[in-house]
Amino acid sequence: MAVKERVGTVVSDKMDKTVVVAVENRFPHPIYKKTVSRTKRYKAHDAANACHTGDRVRIRESRPLSRDKRWVVAELMSSPQT
């Protein structure tokens, strides 16, 4: 079975070893054919506290780590220029 992966943007890094990642899904509306975007937020484990707000990250599904946390940061793809 394939491992689920998502690419999203870190929207919160206030928790210890946890980041909130917003993943945007774009698809055409079934009737009107206009592109619709839906955003889902995932809590992901960031053991090194390396990710900060605005970073682009890849997250991978894992075993349950807490009540809400089922994802792990697999890769820090890019961070905004400061």
TrEMBL record:
**Entries under Pfam families matching the protein:** Ribosomal_S17
Q: Which domain of life is it from?
A: Bacteria
Q: Which GO terms describe its cellular component?
A: cytosolic small ribosomal subunit
One MF term in GO for this entry?
structural constituent of ribosome
Give the signal peptide range. none
What InterPro entries does the entry give? NA-bd_OB-fold, Ribosomal_uS17, Ribosomal_uS17_bact/chlr, Ribosomal_uS17_CS
Asked if the record carries the keyword Ribonucleoprotein, the reply is yes
Q: Which UniProt keywords apply?
A: Ribonucleoprotein, Ribosomal protein, RNA-binding, rRNA-binding
SUPFAM superfamilies cross-referenced by the UniProt entry? Nucleic acid-binding proteins
Write out the GO biological process terms.
translation
- Give yes or no: UniProt keyword RNA-binding: yes
PROSITE patterns the UniProt entry points to: RIBOSOMAL_S17 (PS00056)
Please give the family membership noted in the entry.
Answer: Belongs to the universal ribosomal protein uS17 family.
Name the PANTHER family for this protein. 40S RIBOSOMAL PROTEIN S11 FAMILY MEMBER, SMALL RIBOSOMAL SUBUNIT PROTEIN US17M
Its job: One of the primary rRNA binding proteins, it binds specifically to the 5'-end of 16S ribosomal RNA.
Q: How does it assemble?
A: Part of the 30S ribosomal subunit.
What's the protein name? Small ribosomal subunit protein uS17
Q: Which organism is it from?
A: Aphanocapsa feldmannii 277cV
